[in-house]
Design brief:
mainly alpha
């Protein structure tokens, strides 16, 4: 193949990879999963709202302000803006939380999806900048996911907007481009995380899982018995490295995609059960399932339905 034709073939394949119209269903799955998880989180934290956000909570505003970004509003600014209207601090915080939950419900149902996503993302930005002392990985990925819901056509599948005719669920190039961005982002996240773990000696010698499970804040059960089976600890530690580093390479080929989706979901289930990080594991599982798992599952379901429909026809023809 000559150089010009080789370059043309690569350009054509790349253009098809990022721009050939595909179904927006994975983006709808992303929207529903993210909104559902954040609603569960909001419900679980509802009784702790004053302690998390008020000036007399666990971390006073004078302390949390030092950890916050000065370029992003905080809840104290919202409370101060509402004070001239006669709205107390408690009422202001409750109102902010109420609007956030309503926006998440709109996002979950796909009702005025773009507006709901923008409102949820903006309020989440304010909340995240106000409680950075308590935030960990799940908050970062939730924030990224909400931003994706703002800029991606997540309302074009499984939504009330589509049912009402406000949005079309037809395959589109924008859906394909959005899905590729999500897939590439996840690949970079897992690869960089795995490579960073490789730099740590406890990951290379296979004892990292043991050290994590022995920490009181993470160990949900008594794992002291693992001391008698060191090979299992090493297998779990190196298996985690293999899943994370191999994600970027094995999640794309069709032959290994299903296996790596299953391994990744299994890894996050293990993290949730053994370390108690249910929200973090759930968020990462939603991202992987939406980006890579749903297309495989949907294709398998379509194939099975077609086989079930065509089987009686073929059987009748044979008779």
């Amino acid at each position: 193949m000559s150089a010009p034709s080789w370059r043309s073939a690569v350009r054509a394949r790349l253009a098809a990879f990022v721009g050939e119209p595909t179904s927006p269903q994975p983006l709808g799955v992303l929207r529903i999963g993210v909104a559902a998880l954040l609603l569960i989180q909001a419900w679980s934290l509802s009784e702790s709202l004053p302690e998390l956000l008020s000036n007399r909570g666990w971390v006073p505003w004078s302390v949390s302000e030092a950890l916050a970004s000065p370029a992003v509003p905080r809840v104290d600014a919202v409370v101060a803006a509402l004070a001239p209207l006669g709205i107390s601090q408690v009422a202001g915080l409750q109102g902010l939380a109420f609007v956030y939950v309503v926006a998440l419900l709109g996002l979950l149902l796909g009702l005025h999806t773009r507006v709901s996503a923008v409102v949820a993302w903006v309020i989440h930005t304010v909340l995240l900048n106000s409680i950075s002392f308590f935030s960990y990985g799940v908050e970062t990925f939730a924030h990224i996911s909400l931003f994706y819901c703002v800029v991606m056509p997540v309302g074009t599948a499984f939504s009330l907007d589509m049912r009402a005719g406000r949005l079309s669920g037809a395959p589109s190039a924008l859906a394909t481009l959005s899905l590729r961005v999500l897939q590439l982002h996840l690949s970079l996240i897992y690869l960089s995380t795995g490579l960073e773990k490789l730099l740590g000696p406890v990951w290379r010698d296979g004892t990292a899982i043991w050290e994590v499970l022995m920490q009181p804040q993470y160990g949900q059960f008594d794992f002291a018995w693992l001391a008698a089976v060191p090979w299992l600890v090493k297998l779990s530690t190196w298996g985690t490295l293999a899943v994370e580093v191999g994600y970027a390479f094995c999640i794309w080929p069709r032959r290994t995609r299903g296996l790596w989706v299953a391994l990744t979901l299994g890894m996050h289930l293990g993290i949730a059960v053994m370390m108690g990080l249910w929200m973090f594991s759930g968020m990462m599982a939603v991202l992987t399932f939406a980006a890579f798992g749903w297309p495989l599952l949907h294709e398998a379901m379509v194939t099975r339905v077609r086989a079930a429909v065509l089987l009686p026809f073929h059987s009748g023809s044979a008779r």
